[in-house]
Amino acid sequence: MCHNKKILQFLILFSSIFSYSQFYRKDTLRGDFIYLLKAKLNTQSNHIHEEYFSLQIGDNRAFFASVQSIKADSVYQKIPHKKLDNGAILISAKGMSIPKTKFPYRIIQSGENIQYFRWVAMTALTYKEPIIDNWKLINESKVINSFNCKKAEVSYKGRNWIAWYSTEIPFPYGPYKFGGLPGLIIKIVDDKGDYDFELVKSVSNTKLNGKLTSINIEKYRDAVETTQYKFEKALKNANENAIGILQNSGTTIIQGQEILQQRIKERQLNLKYENPIELSIE
Q1: What is the phi/psi pair of residue 184, to 5°?
Q2: How does pLDDT run across 41-89, given as a tens digit for each residue?
Q3: CA angle in degrees (0–180, nearest 5) for 132-110-161
Q4: Which of 39, 126, 169, 219 qualifies as a cystine partner to 184, CB 3.0-4.6 A?
């Protein structure tokens, strides 16, 4: 009964939200960059999680996603899906290794806004935010990974950030939601050192000719548009009742229910010690 009540609350949360169905075509690449994130994800541990991210820049926008999540999309497409007579979906990942990520989202930056996409339970959600425009440019420079960089600072959602950007790469983008500077962000770190993004690889222009972005946005074409506040509330509800929501959706996971339950239990124990990249919602 408790599970059903939480599921109902989850559904009611979106009763006033309209469906987002804009189709994103694949863009021609103008820039292709790999960042390494070093992050302290748990306040009770000194462990530093490392993960690579891809920033793919098209003519009018940039796509950002974890390299592991891009690989997981590719593997997931190969997993057999069988629709049953009652409408349920039978999924069997036996014998398949799906890449794991701590950051299963997609972010699109443009000159107009920042758009965030993520699946919560069995629903794709998206919300938009204004581009960051409160940067403080600092008269300081240094060389990072062979790029001449200039310094900028910004306070963003509970953290103070120091960025190093290069006008040698004239793209106003960077990792995560960070952009709006007169050059590509080469490195950005918060003043506590909890999150540190640094550019570690770029593809030369000669190798980009005619190539398209490979970050999959098509799977979000029917995403439900919401606000960040409602998104965070839905994510919290989903974490508290993941098993019930999965069962309610009509999805059966073969040989994976016990593993899923254990992961949810561990997740709930760790929630109180989480150290998210955004400490507040403005």
Answers
A1: -65, 135
A2: 999 889 999 999 999 999 899 999 999 998 877 666 665 655 556 555 5
A3: 30
A4: 169
Geometric angle at alpha carbon 206, from 201 and 212, rounded to 5°: 75
The whole-model pTM stands at 0.81
The label of the residue with tokens 């550019």 reads: 199
254 burial type by CB count under 10 A (0-12 exposed, 13-18 middle, 19+ buried)? exposed
For the beta carbon of residue 238, count every other beta carbon within 10 angstroms. Answer: 20
Q: What are the pLDDT digits (tens) for 178-208?
A: 999 999 999 999 999 999 999 999 998 888 9
Residue 215: partners with Cβ closer than 8 Å, 6 or more residues away? 54, 56, 63, 64, 65, 70, 106
Angstrom CA distances, 162 to 19, 86, 192, 215, stand at 36, 54, 10, 27
Burial of 55 (0-12, 13-18, 19+ CB in 10 A): buried
Largest pairwise CA distance in the chain = 66
Residue pair 263/39 in contact (Cβ under 8 Å)? The answer is no
CB 152 within 8 A of CB 135: yes
Please report where in the chains the tokens 């169905």 appear, as a residue. Answer: 21
Query: Can you tell me the distance from the alpha carbon of 147 to that of 276, in angstroms, rounded to the nearest whole number?
Result: 29
Name beta bridge partners: 65: 54, 106
Q: Do the Cβ atoms of 102 and 277 come closer than 8 Å?
A: no
Determine the Cα–Cα distance for residues 138 and 31; give it in Å rounded to an integer: 26
Place of tokens 């409408």: 87
